[in-house]
Structure formats: structure tokens, C-alpha cells
Specification:
The chain is mainly α and 101 residues long. Helix content is 64%, strand content 4%. The chain has a domain of 58 residues. The longest helix has 35 residues.
Length: 101
């Protein structure tokens, strides 16, 4: 039977990276939930003309999709920033062939 080895402990920089990733994800999910459920719950009170259409119709048909696309763009940009910060904090680790990643 092969010996069982413990998984390597993540570095402090890696733990900060995942904490930032989780916080960002939770914050953007909260915004998405507020728009998806909150805005549609109060859409009937938002009845005024907007580019020739009732605003509540526009909000339900287009607003949620636009907010979702913006949230995806914000997530991509923020994660690129967080990933660059991790790359600056952690030294390059060699791969199995001995080459730095």
C-alpha cells in the first residue's frame, strides 16, 4: 500500500488570493441578486415612458442582461488585477521538469 502524503500547505499569498477571489465573487453575486430580484420586484412602480417604452418593460427585458454583462466585465478586470498581485507576491515555482512556471 502506498504511503499517504499530506497536501502542501498554500502560501500566505495564495490564501490572500483566494480570500480576495471569494470576497469579489460574493460582492458581485450580491449585486446580481439585488438587480435580478430587487429591481423586478419593484418594476411596477417604475412605470414611466423611456425611449417610447414603459420603463418597467425595459428594465425587465434589457436591464438585467446589461447589468450581468457589466458584472462579467468587472469580474474579469478585477481578477486580472488580483492574479497580477499574486504573481508579484509569489516567486516562480519550478514545474516537474525544473523550469520556472
Amino acid at each position: 500500500m502506498a504511503p499517504v502524503t499530506a497536501a502542501p500547505t498554500p502560501s500566505p499569498a495564495a490564501r490572500r488570493h483566494w480570500r480576495r477571489t471569494r470576497l469579489l465573487t460574493l460582492a458581485l453575486l450580491a449585486v446580481w441578486a439585488a438587480v435580478a430580484f430587487g429591481a423586478t420586484a419593484f418594476a411596477r412602480e417604475l412605470d414611466f415612458p423611456f425611449f417610447g417604452w414603459p420603463f418597467d418593460f425595459w428594465l425587465a427585458a434589457q436591464g438585467g442582461v446589461i447589468v450581468f454583462v457589466v458584472l462579467v466585465a468587472v469580474y474579469a478586470r478585477a481578477m486580472a488585477h488580483v492574479d497580477r498581485a499574486l504573481a508579484r507576491e509569489e516567486p516562480a515555482q519550478p514545474d516537474a521538469a525544473g523550469e520556472p512556471r
